[in-house]
Amino acid sequence: MGTLHYGSPSAAFAIDDRTLAHIELVIMAKLRRRENLSFALVDEKTSVRQSMWISPVTQLRFEYDGPMPEINRLWLHELVDTANSSGGLRIVPEPELPSH
Length: 100
What we know:
This protein is α+β, with helices and mostly antiparallel strands. α1 (17-32) crosses α2. The model has no long low-confidence stretch (mean pLDDT 92). Helix content is 27%, strand content 28%. The chain is built from 2 helices and 6 strands.
């Protein structure tokens, strides 16, 4: 289980390493283009929804328990689509890769 550290002082959000790696790539791509975005997280146990505003001046740190997982390009594209929508970045289910 990884952790997204947001803000200063930081708030910590526990996110699965695989999911966090994909979220990091989306957020960093937006920030490299100096674009702001909102990011909504829903706690699956409590259904509590939290939303945060991320801009190039936001302090973020991504912490992982394991090595960088393999990236699912289909999922990455779906996450980018949510980040570019009016609803902002949100975690959507990972699609299965087509079998070859």
